Amino acid sequence: MTERINALRASGELPRFIAVEGPIGVGKTTLARRLADTFGFDTLLEQAEDNPFLTRFYQDPARFALQTELFFLFQRADQLRQLQQQDLFTGPKVADFLVDKNRLFAEVNLDEDEFALYDNVFRHMLLDAPAPDLVIYLQAPTGVLRQRVQKRGHDFEQRVDPGYLGRLNDAYTRFFHFYDAAPLLIVNAAEIDLVSGEADYQQLVGELLDIRTGRHYFNPRPLV
Q1: pLDDT at 197
Q2: Label partner for 51 (CA 20 to 30 A): which of 68, 102, 158, 190?
């Protein structure tokens, strides 16, 4: 696998910007870190733990949704601005988010008037993020997401309502049903181990190295 990655890097065919996406608990940050280590890329991570409103949002969503979403929007704008000033977009990266996900969460979390305000701010900020060379969408049933959220034990996530996870999961499904801004690999992450399972992970890397355009689906092949 290493020889193939090096050959693609030398020929300029290795994707230079990979974005991993999916709902809460699906494992996107861990996969992003592992891919970065495999390819020798830098990571661009969401840093949700820096949001001071997030714990309060999970305790009282109606009251703190707007503050939470605006903080994430401004955080994303700062990340992109810093990267552009430092010219770091010239280096290869793996991100655990798409900028589009900010608006997706806002649609789920805000009422009609709040979303109109948020959308006005969003449009005026004109976030200028480059299109990824490849997007990996990790999907799993809501019950699996809930189990993984509980297992990883982040205090601010333990109050996550299963109904909210379900609505968010549905929003991701609708979003990626129409997504065509970059090559897309849809991964069934429900019953595979992309964190420590070496066979599943190596199959995934082999699959993504072949993608240049279009929409693709990944389920690991059973080992013979």
Answers
A1: 79
A2: 190
